[in-house]
Amino acid sequence: MTRTILVTGAAGFIGFHTALRFLAQGERVVGIDNLNDYYDVRLKQSRLDLLLQDPNFTMHRVDLQDRTAIERVFSENSFDRVVHLGAQAGVRYSLINPYSYIDSNISGTMTILEGCRHHHVPHLVYASSSSVYGHNAKQPFSVEDSVDHPISLYAATKKANELMAHTYSHLYGVSTTGLRFFTVYGPWGRPDMAVFKFTDAIMADRPIDVYNGGEMKRDFTYIDDIVTAIVRVTDRIAEPASEYDPYHPDPATSSAPYRIYNIGNHQPTNLMDFIATLERALGKTAIKNMLPMQPGDVVSTYADVEALKAAVEFSPSTSIEFGIKQFVQWYREYYRV
User: Fold this and answer.
1) Could you tell me which residues come within 8 angstroms of residue 201 by beta carbon, excluding any fewer than 6 positions away?
2) 107, 191, 223, 295: which sits with the fewest CB atoms below 10 Å from its CB?
3) Which residue of the set 93, 154, 185, 261 is catalytic?
4) Under 8 Å CB-to-CB from 287, ≥6 apart: which residues?
5) Would the pLDDT of 204 be above 80?
6) How many whole angstroms separate alpha carbon 253 and alpha carbon 268?
């Protein structure tokens, strides 16, 4: 039978690709997005236009924190799954406009949790972030590690989302699974992310900002891998962990129906190597503006994905060379470069 799946942030980068995948599988998808102007609304609309070509897709342009509107969406549908990907993204922007993160990421997630609670949704899958690891130095980052030292408000709101989800899993039996994404990139990506910003600048012969003298590493994860993991996890409904020990609690599991997974390529790439790969794909050399470390940033990210692999028999593995080539091909086609 065709299932009905709610995808929040459906006009966003990950939400768009996730909705496309569900539609390709024959599911009915209901999208929520407010199409805010954090980045180019025309790009968001272009994604949405593609989704709207499928008769199994319907769209609601509302704010996540609009309790009345969100309740109406839940009341008018019977969701088999909710995939909550809508959020105010970006570490650096959280230094400028902190209230937008409270509105979208805290209040917005609250309305989704309430919708899942009152309408008995079998499984809520939601986006967390590798940013929650904050000041942690031990790598690779494991879901079994404590994440109590965030270094940006964005990271703090994502940690708060995990705590909120656990509370609803414990109090109301809502099955929740949080996914910590590691530096997602690929076609239809976000213009505020490195590969997009660098491509824009290199093509226009503008300098690119390289922080910490280029001495940074990121676990760049290709969008198709992210979506495959999301789709598989939606069918792995979180259950209470039979081995959970409250005297030695595992942060990734619980006596409640609650799970946390990393989704990363588990192959950190040096920033300068990443730039060199992009230069080769574009056939142009970047003008580099070397800058110090930025507040809220971390030097390195590296995902331990063993828990994900054990749960859904999948872990990301797309090479940075292939992923960047695919992004550049999309960029040239979309912007007619």
Assistant:
1) 207, 208, 286, 287
2) 295
3) 154
4) 201, 205, 206, 207, 208
5) yes
6) 26
Tell me how far apart the alpha carbons of residues 323 and 223 are, in angstroms, rounded to a whole number. 9
Confidence band, pLDDT 50/70/90 cuts, at residue 90: confident
The answer to whether 280 and 198 are in contact (CB under 8 A) is no
Q: Report the C-alpha gap between 140 and 266 in whole angstroms.
A: 8
**pLDDT tens digits, residue range 212-244?**
888 899 999 999 999 999 999 999 999 999 999
pLDDT higher than 80, residue 50: yes
- CA–CA dist 297, 163 (Å, integer): 23
Tell how many helices (H) and how many strands (E) occur in the chain. 11, 13
Does the N-terminal peptide bond of residue 150 adopt cis geometry, omega within 30 degrees of 0? no
- Using a 10 angstrom Cβ sphere, with 0-12 exposed, 13-18 middle and 19 or more buried, the burial of residue 248 is exposed
Mean pLDDT across the stretch 259-286? 96
CB 216 within 8 A of CB 292: no
Q: Does 154 qualify as catalytic in the annotation?
A: yes
| Burial class of 110 by CB neighbour count within 10 A (0 to 12, 13 to 18, 19+) | middle
Average pLDDT over residues 270-298: 92
